Amino acid sequence: MSGDGSPPQRVRVTHPRTVAPRRAPLRAPTREIDEQTELGAVYMSSLVRSQARLALTVCVVVAALLVGTALAGALAPGLDRIRLLGIPLPWLVLGALVYPVLIGLGWYAVRTAERNERAFAALVRRR
Amino acid sequence: MTHGPASVVAVTLVVGATLVAGSLGLRRARTTSDFYVAARSVSPRWNAAAIGGEYLSAASYLGVAGLVLAYGFDMLWYPVCYTAGYLVLLALVAAPLRRSGAYTLPDFAQIRLGSPVVRRVASILVVLIGWLYLVPQLQGAALTLRTQTGAPGWVGGLLVALVVIAAVAVGGMRSITFAQALQFWLKFIALLLPALVLVGVWQHRHDGVGAGLPSVRHTTTVDVGAAITVRVPREEVLDVRGSVDGRAADGPVRLLRGEHRLGAHSRLTLRPGDAVPVRSGLPSQRSDSWLRPLGSGTAHPLYASLSLILAICLGTMGLPHVLVRFYTNSDGRDARRTTLNVLVLLSAFYLVPTIFGALGRAYVPDLLVTGNTDATVLALPERMLGGAPGVWLGALVTAGAFAAFLSTASGLTVSVAGVLTQDVLRRRVARPFGDGRARRIRTFRVAAVAAIAVPYLLSLPGGQVGLAAMVGLAFAVAAATFCPLLVLGIWWTRLTVAGTVAGLVTGGVLATAAVLVTVIGDPAGGWWAALLAQPGAWAVPISFGVMIAVSLATRRGIPPDTARVMVRLHGPEFLADELRAADRSTG
């Protein structure tokens, strides 16, 4: 502020932070996260919890799929007599059919994780 | 071998293409960042193909079919879990790992826990797993050149080692990304095309594996190199020239059911209808059992299957060469999408080795005599087609196999060399200022030579364990060490330095001990052998348990910036500007 000259010259006064006022509400929650305030911890842990739930769901489904298939072979020994297109059912399942299921689960995981992140961003930016 | 020249041409082409791709990369690698991580400008599709190229090793290309031929249905768990491992990786670590900004696993350990001790332990483990994984690649190269051209055993591995050193040391990571992506497609096509032809031929002939003991379709001679012990599954008369059980033989010999010793350089002639003798150590089950779940003829097949599922699904995320590749994604979201692309590519690829394995049981069961079943993929085209088509498809398969060895070996070499550079050589050789960049690159080149020379020497004795099983052991070590580090590091805020070190050391020592006993020793059989051959089911929970228990016991040791790191790992990048602005204004 250089206002000590004798003739009080006109000085154009502009708001020094033209962008900041609009960004302030954006920054506040992230600053809270960064400063590790209690509110910030709540924000972050809500995201981490939703992502962890997703990760756990996918892992449990994969485990159930694979372990279930392995146990089915042990508990129902006659499965290999069922043939589709001349191929024994267990070979068809583990040799081919399991792969689309894995891809489907992967697609679900990607979509849900991105949705969780968008929800988190909306939560953070709302304030 | 009749198709030696064609295979030599094929191998030469692959080697030449790799080197050209490497030198193209050299022109583009301008900064140190380019050199190490392709400047983070690789799209998910390219990146996924590159991951696939790096990941599909000798184990996938040759090993799976060999195991399927010998053991049957139970071995399908290998390809399924090699793929499912990426789903687990996608769900648990892909995006946070990318967001951590770690280039190597030791980097991740340091970022998360801020401890040089953890970093050092992680570095040792990266080198250990990398070497464990490199050995079967070099053995596969030796096997391929020996089978296809008759070259001595030490040539194949040396060739791969030299090409990798040239390509890696000259071009760095950038070149490797393009070369790897290219090699995925080369491998896929080189396996898919012959498979389609062979399935067509098989459909035409309507041959099946049958239900009885495996036997050849046409009279086949088997040359035994070094003396071996085989199990004859039923009493029969076989034509042997050489020696059996210490007695000279030249013509039909009556052999009782049980084990027999074939002298060095014996020649066995198998006729259609003869039950194929099986190298001791491999199961000699009938084909109806071979077709059935848990019919692999080994002890405790259900335990083996379950332990294998755990080890491979959780071990994938701990493979050093795969993690480096995640760093080249532009953000966490891209890392996830890349992983999904990888799942698609691997799913397509892994349909094929199973076909080779099953056809192998029908057409090349004589490989069971020498136990050289890893050669199934290589031998099948010539045996089924014969003539020029057999030779050319055989050469194509050989080219793909070399692409597999080169790509995996170079990926592993980059990661092991990266760790050696950062944690072993840098302090001694490089300086932070002055011509630091040139020095760093020079150090990296020295490290690359060290990274592959050691496993080459280890690969020379040759392996008794199949390629895929050997790689499975490397997965088990990764699952027992880096999987708990990554999963707990990303999802659990109470992890401490002491807990991490305790878990890494426990898991590393237990899994490595099991691997060494299985590979070097010869455990007698029964439960102990089954537990040691598949250490995943016990080593992984123990490692997790130790890491959690010790962390809980040393609560004061929770790193002070854990919450901040968690924000970095899980916070989406599109909020990064806000996060950074907040960071500046606060401090």
Written account of the structure:
The complex is a heterodimer of chains A (127) and B (587). By secondary structure, chain A is mainly alpha-helical. Chain A is built from 3 helices and 2 strands. Chain A has one domain (27-126). Chain A has a two-stranded antiparallel sheet with strand order 1-2. In chain A, helix 1 (20-34) crosses helix 2 (38-75) and helix 2 runs antiparallel to helix 3 (89-126). By secondary structure, chain B is an alpha+beta fold. Chain B folds into 2 domains: 4-205 and 300-586, Sodium/glucose cotransporter (Up-down Bundle), CATH 1.20.1730; 220-275, no CATH class. In chain B, strand 3 (236-244) and strand 4 form a beta hairpin. In chain B, helix 7 packs antiparallel against helix 8 and helix 8 packs across helix 18 (436-459). In chain B, 60% of the residues are buried. The chains are: A mainly alpha (127), B alpha+beta (587). At the A-B interface, helix 1, helix 2 and helix 3 of A face helix 5, helix 11, helix 13, helix 14 and helix 23 of B.
